[in-house]
Amino acid sequence: MPLNDTVHQVTESIHRRSAASRRAYLEQMDVWGRRDRSMDRLGCANIAHAVAGIGQNDKLRVVVERAPHIGIVTAYNDMLSAHAPLQHYPDLIKDEARRQGATAQVAGGVPAMCDGVTQGTAGMDLSLFSRDTIAMATAVALSHDVFDAALMLGVCDKIVPGLLIGALHFGYLPTVFVPAGPMPSGLSNSAKAKAREQAAQGLIGRDELLQAEMASYHAPGTCTFYGTANSNQMLLEAMGLHVPGTAFVNPGQPLRAELTREAARTVLGRVGEGSGAWACPPIGQIVDERAIVNAMVALLATGGSTNHLIHWVAVARSAGIAIDWEDFSQLSAAVPLLARVYPNGSADVNQFQAAGGPGYIIRELLDAGLMHEDVLTVRAGGIREYTRVPQGDEQHRLRWSAVGASGDDGILRPASDPFSATGGLKVLTGNLGRSVIKVSAVPQDRHVIEAPARVFDSQAALLSAFHNGDLDGDVVCVVRWQGPRANGMPELHKLTPPLAVLQGKGYRVALVTDGRMSGASGKVPAAIHVVPEALAGGPIAKVRDGDLVRLDAVAGTLDVLVDAAVWQAREPAQRTEAQAADSAHGLGRELFAGFRRNALGAEEGACSWL
């Protein structure tokens, strides 16, 4: 199938605007990659320090036999259910490396925070910047500069983008990402959402709500809704950075362990017929414009997380590639929605996997000419290998089989008969600036909202107004001072239940904010990531209570319906010293002042290192 014209045009546009920066990146990676092997160029004391902590046999392999040496960067902790299974992965990897005549070391750990724990708290102010912290920690781990390849162990929201940003700064190393898989299905996501809405209305108490939440998040593994963590896994499959079909195999299964071993074999090029038959390419060569576009297309086709309109801009920048929201918007107009997974459907990711999962999505997109097939991946078979499903036999040997037809056309549909002809995201522009909206979960009759504004300086203020009954009626809730420079751009996911309650009462309701709404953005229309943010003098700071606001996801506009001369003359509100102090102190937020000061806008990836 010929490549879709829009996909081709967007890719060519990215290629042209990125030509100089991409060339500079590749030249730099080539210089670093051409150096002599570390054990041949490092001083004797450097080498001794590097291997002092490993066994004698491994020392012999690394130093004398000059065996390949894998650096493991792990985001393990057992605060994150998704990362708890990673605890024993290094032992598996080291054992498999030895079997392949190689060695492996844990190069370092990176921090990994659970947004589910910090939602609605001051700790969430560190969430977005944890991505850049993880990238820097990855650089610290690999700066020992003794590795021939790398394995990245991580799953969740900011962790995968952070690991990927860090890895791309070592783009001369072959690198494979190693996930842990989702927890088994518990209480359904729709039942969980209903319990939250009932709690917001006071219909159930804390004990009943806690029982519902504990039944939802109940075991090791990734949360089962299709939020940022699971979107990460879909995008890594679409970029060819996993062992094919690895994303959504549950923890604890023999297949899961064997796929982890296969990651070690893959990064060493020890798969297929004959040892060393395929050299895993350096990650900086794999992640080119085509791979970035493939990831964007997969995100749109599955109605994935809005957070990636920030993260993937930063990831692309790390490989010398410049993308923006207009690229997403153009692709969204051409890419059909092929998946219905909560929050844009009722299925969870286990049901998504059972219906065909990433392999089905990638096959349909390739066959429809909506993904680039001429790309490098970590495997010799290219991106077509990612249309197959892994299985293990009684001896735990791996084999892959064709994904077949959709196992449930209520969850996955072919490109010839999609849920929607267009993708799940839309860019909005107008006199309020630029923003994005996830429309895949929003009912069709809510794609246009026109209502009076209520302006809030925090999500706590909005919640208080809701509980006091002050929001009953048509309303556009404007929540400002939530951008990267103001307070680190926290997710405002706690606002979803009360706004859903208002919408359920029949009111015309929308949210407009310079903050984020998480990968779980749901059925309430929300114009998020508004740029410029309020603290940067953005027009969102001009909105006053009672202003008529129009959010039009059909036309792609976001406007305050105020006389143009009045709007132009209106001075933006200023954040008070108390508000600024409240976002800068406590829970270590003082340490992130430099991040807030240096952060770029959301459409520029909210990067803090440029």
List keywords for this structure.
single chain, 610 residues, alpha/beta, Glucose Oxidase, domain 1, 3 domains, 39% helix, 13% strand, globular
Structure description:
Its EC number is 4.2.1.12. It comes from Melaminivora suipulveris. Keywords: 4Fe-4S, Carbohydrate metabolism, Gluconate utilization, Iron, Iron-sulfur, Lyase, Metal-binding. Catalyzes the dehydration of 6-phospho-D-gluconate to 2-dehydro-3-deoxy-6-phospho-D-gluconate. This protein has 610 residues and is of the alpha/beta class. It has three domains: 5-35 and 67-184 and 219-402, no CATH class; 193-218, no CATH class; 425-604, IlvD/EDD C-terminal domain-like (Glucose Oxidase, domain 1). The chain has helices spanning 5-33, 38-41, 44-51, 56-64, 89-99, 115-118, 127-142, 159-168, 189-200, 206-216, 228-239, 254-268, 283-286, 289-301, 308-318, 325-334, 349-355, 357-367, 459-467, 484-487, 496-504, 564-569, 577-582, 593-598, and strands at residues 69-74, 103-109, 149-153, 175-178, 388-392, 398-402, 425-430, 433-438, 448-456, 475-479, 509-513, 526-531, 548-552, 557-560. The radius of gyration is 24 Å and the shape is globular.
List the helices and strands and how they pair.
Blueprint: H1 5-33, H2 38-41, H3 44-51, H4 56-64, E1 69-74, H5 89-99, E2 103-109, H6 115-118, H7 127-142, E3 149-153, H8 159-168, E4 175-178, H9 189-200, H10 206-216, H11 228-239, H12 254-268, H13 283-286, H14 289-301, H15 308-318, H16 325-334, H17 349-355, H18 357-367, E5 388-392, E6 398-402, E7 425-430, E8 433-438, E9 448-456, H19 459-467, E10 475-479, H20 484-487, H21 496-504, E11 509-513, E12 526-531, E13 548-552, E14 557-560, H22 564-569, H23 577-582, H24 593-598
Parallel strand pairs: 1-2, 1-3, 3-4, 9-10, 10-11, 11-12
Antiparallel strand pairs: 5-6, 7-8, 8-12, 9-13, 13-14
Helix pairs in contact: 1-14, 1-16, 5-12, 7-8, 8-15, 9-10, 9-21, 11-14
